[in-house]
DNA sequence: CGGGATCCGGCTTGATACTG
DNA sequence: CAGTATCAAGCCGGATCCCG
């Protein structure tokens, strides 16, 4: 809402990419999922249900604002379910929806695959840097 | 190289996230892969080998600079192979490495899954907006 | 505790122009 | 054609304050 934004309630990482969102609607959701905090949040929630500040601890380095935005975006996309209890102090639990679990599963498959091949990547990087970085 | 950057030859989307790259090396590669242009580029290259400007056409909306940076990052990670021929005019072809194909495959699996469920997502979004966006 | 609103700095991006 | 250098602008993301 800082500038020319007015219609969209939540954006997170879309504002500048409306063009693409229009051309390909899934792009927006994909950005939420694969984005930095989205991926980490899905990864955390894949292991169970957590409260806001529990998630903050698990998703290391995230600020309240970004976690809040990320959760809203994922909730809006139907990947995360938010359960608020009007107790005092308030208690809010977040968990993945069935769809969210499926998405998280595929995402984690990709992540784990890449992590499993990091040694190859590291070798490739060194070669690349040795050839071009030297000069 | 705009400011405090000096050691890393190529960054694309890392400069600000060094902290995380340090904590989890795969994070950087993941960002290259799942990032906006990275994903589109891998998707395009998954279908075959292409020249620079061919890719520019296929990856709609990408600027020369971003395509160049993206390709360099992916090449550095060992996911893309660059074949330059010293002819005149110069001809450079890009194609996925075997590792790149595996990664692209999993990425596309995720993307296609999300695209296949976009109707669910859209419904969820409308419900969400109806409840909270109304006011 | 759970989260919304605001301010602000810095990185990322996108045109443009130039080289080989 | 295949890129690189420069420049300006814009968005992301963090810190802070505040409310329920």
Question: Can you put this structure into words, describing what you see?
Answer:
Chains A, B: Keywords: DNA-binding, Transcription, Transcription regulation. The first copy, chain A, is mainly alpha-helical. Chain A is elongated, with a radius of gyration of 18 Å. The longest helix of chain A is centred in the last third of the chain and has 19 residues, at 98-116. Chain A has one domain (22-131): Orthogonal Bundle (Arc Repressor Mutant, subunit A). The first copy, chain A, has helices at 18-23, 26-34, 36-45, 52-58, 64-76, 98-116, 118-133, and strands spanning 50-51, 80-85, 91-96. Mean pLDDT of chain A is 83; it is low at 1-19. Chains A and B meet through helix 1, helix 2, helix 6 and helix 7 of A and helix 1, helix 2, helix 6 and helix 7 of B. The first copy, chain A, binds a DNA duplex (20 and 20 nucleotides) through helix 5.
In short:
The first copy, chain A, is mainly α and 135 residues long. Chain A contains 7 helices and 3 strands, in the order H-H-H-E-H-H-E-E-H-H. Residues 1-19 of chain A have low confidence and may be disordered.
| CATH third-level topology of chain A | Arc Repressor Mutant, subunit A
The CATH architecture of chain A would be Orthogonal Bundle
Estimated radius of gyration of chain A: 18 Å
- Subunit arrangement of the protein: homodimer
Segments of chain A where pLDDT lies below 50 for 5+ residues? 1-19
Shape descriptor of chain A: elongated
**Which bin fits the share of residues in helices of chain A?**
55-70%
Based on secondary structure, the structural category of chain A is: mainly alpha
Hey, which two chains have the biggest interface? A-B, 45 and 45 residues
* Count of distinct structural domains of chain A: 1
Strand order across the biggest sheet of chain A? 1-3-2
Tally of helical segments of chain A: 7
- The strand count of chain A comes to 3
Order of helices and strands of chain A: HHHEHHEEHH
Strand content of chain A: 5-15%
Query: Any idea of the CATH class of chain A?
Result: Mainly Alpha
């Amino acid at each position: 809402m800082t500038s020319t934004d007015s219609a969209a309630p939540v954006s997170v990482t879309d504002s500048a990419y409306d063009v693409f969102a229009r051309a390909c609607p899934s792009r927006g959701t994909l950005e939420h999922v694969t984005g930095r905090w989205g991926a980490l949040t899905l990864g955390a929630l894949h292991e169970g249900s957590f409260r806001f500040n529990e998630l903050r601890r698990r998703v290391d380095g995230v600020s309240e604002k970004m976690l809040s935005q990320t959760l809203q975006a994922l909730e809006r996309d139907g990947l995360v379910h938010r359960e608020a209890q009007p107790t005092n102090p308030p208690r809010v639990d977040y968990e993945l929806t069935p769809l969210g679990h499926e998405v998280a599963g595929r995402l984690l498959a990709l992540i784990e695959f890449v992590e499993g091949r990091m040694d190859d990547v590291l070798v490739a990087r060194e070669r690349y840097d040795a050839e071009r970085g030297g000069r």
